[in-house]
Amino acid sequence: MEDQQILDLYFARAESAISETDKKYGRYCHYIAYRILENDEDAKEIVNDTFLKVWNTIPPNRPDPLKPYLGMISRQLSIDRYEMYHAQKRAGQVTAVLDELARCIPDADSREDMGESVALTEALNRFVHSLSGKAQKVFVRRYWYTNSISEIAKEYGMKESSVTVLLMRTRKKLKAFLEKEGFYL
After folding, report:
1. Given 7, 29, 94, 115, which residue has the most CB atoms within 10 angstroms?
2. Domains along the chain?
3. Does the pTM of the predicted model rise above 0.85?
4. Considering only CA atoms, which of 109, 142, 107, 104 is closest in space to residue 124?
5. At residue 177, what are phi and psi to the nearest 5 degrees?
6. Which tens digit of pLDDT belongs to each residue from 55-84?
7. What is the rounded CA–CA span in Å between residue 38 and residue 35?
């Protein structure tokens, strides 16, 4: 079923919207949640929570395309759950990934309103799309899917040190890009 047909089901408040979403994107949402939480049961709960949130936000939203919208919700719910589980014990792959990226992106406290958060999101998207093929793939694998350095190296036939250097250079470019875009004062 096409995304627009699925969205039409949500707008019609048809319960089949959820089952159609699950058929088409359930594995995708589960993959994102599992990469962050490393627990199958938690990942399944996140997928269900994702579908509930989608049910509650469509309408009025009509995301186009649907897949990144689902991925964003699944990822944020997973990170929230991860942070809840690790509130006192800060360790693990997700913490390392978030800490790496936090050095490049302005703190949420420095952004005054939701409009600036949207502008930052749009700037990040422009930056990712401006990267070369391999740099873009490695960056997305690390900071969206939270793959480890060794997983990325294996997937792209690179040395771990090469992945680390590529990510470091890309983060420097990101920080310079965001400074040029006016996100740092």
Report:
1. 29
2. 3-85 (1.10.1740.10), 93-180 (1.10.10.10)
3. no
4. 104
5. -60, -45
6. 999 988 898 889 999 999 999 999 889 888
7. 6
| Cβ–Cβ under 8 Å, residues 57 and 16 | no
Q: Identify the helix (H) or strand (E) that includes residue 47.
A: helix 40-57
Query: Distance (Å, rounded) from C-alpha 62 to C-alpha 60?
Result: 7
Q: What is the distance between the alpha carbons of residues 25 and 32, in angstroms, rounded to a whole number?
A: 11
As given in the structure block, the two tokens for residue 51 are 């579908």
Amino acid letter, residue 70: L
- Distance (Å, rounded) from C-alpha 50 to C-alpha 33? 10
Q: Which residue has the tokens 């079923």?
A: 1
Q: Write out the two tokens for 46.
A: 């996140």
Residues 10, 25: Cα–Cα separation, whole Å? 15
Give the closest residue to 127 by CA, choosing from 76, 83, 180: 180
